[in-house]
Amino acid sequence: MKPNSSKPIFLTQFLIEEQRSAGKIKPDLRLLLEVVARACKRISIAVGKGALGGVLGDAGTGNIQGEAQKKLDVISNEILLEANEWGGHLAALASEEMDHPHPIPEQYPKGGYLLLFDPLDGSSNIDVNVSVGTIFSVLKVPEGVTQASEADFLQPGVQQVAAGYCVYGPSTTMVLTLGKGVHQFTLDRELGSFVLTQRDMMIPADTKEFSINMSNQRFWEAPVQRYIDECVAGKDGPRGKDFNMRWVASMVADVHRIITRGGVFMYPLDSKTQAQGGKLRLLYEANPMSFIIEQAGGAATTGRERILDIKPGKLHQRVPVIMGSKNEVDRVTQYHG
Ligand code: AHM
Ligand code: MG
Where is substrate bound in this sequence (predicted)? Predict the structure, then answer.
């Protein structure tokens, strides 16, 4: 039967078609992605309840990065763990909110994938009702490994087999790459299903919009100072055009805007975060977002190297991040010499 183009394509159908088309994805990976999507629906419901759900405010605990955890950070982490640990598709999970990887409990079978996530990105926005999200990355367990350990997660981003994020905003959207383009799904809240709303998202190579926390300006390195100075100089400066600035302070929301209409997102190295290598985390923030950005025709570097090529040294490693419209990212990277 010929597909009817006006018929909605649900995430399940999309993934089954991906699996069928020349074996693009394995059944276990399809299951994994469905389970992550289902967990994200639960997180979306919890986020959406806000004060009525009693989920706002601090959890009274801290994570390994020394950050105070919000109740929703902890709830989202638990939702993702519970959803994923019993299905038999994973060897282990790792999260921003846990010091070490979470092993699959003894009673469940183990699978061939590793899942990493930032369960609720943009935590500072939870209590003020601004968009937050979930970011995730999928790796394969290295050949011959029977008991996955922390070292098995330390793979460069080029080895990701899938990555995605969910934005809990005015609508809940999931953006996904399986290594062949980037596709957007919108949660139909009445049906409780993700529906394909955009195939093959592409980031324009040029932009007139940048995204950076300007309050850190005095801490930046010279190449970033130069780039932003030139943008701010506008039409009369060396760029010969006026730039706009946006900073949501949720990476998911800022990157989603860039994937939708172009722009450059930066959390560069600065003198405040230099000692720890940057602000954002490589394995479950920078890598999945870089994979998505590159698949959408954009670029992602630290200013000095391609993010996806970095060989991680530790699970919670941080990196400087410059990503988005290709020509702008190339320009900032060139300024770094
Ligand atoms: P989180 O994962 O603890 O929420 O922290 C990461 C967030 C990013 O989403 C965002 O781009 C950045 O931190 C905002 O930082 P700042 O508060 O310095 O503007
Ligand atoms: Mg985060």
Answer: 121-124, 213, 279
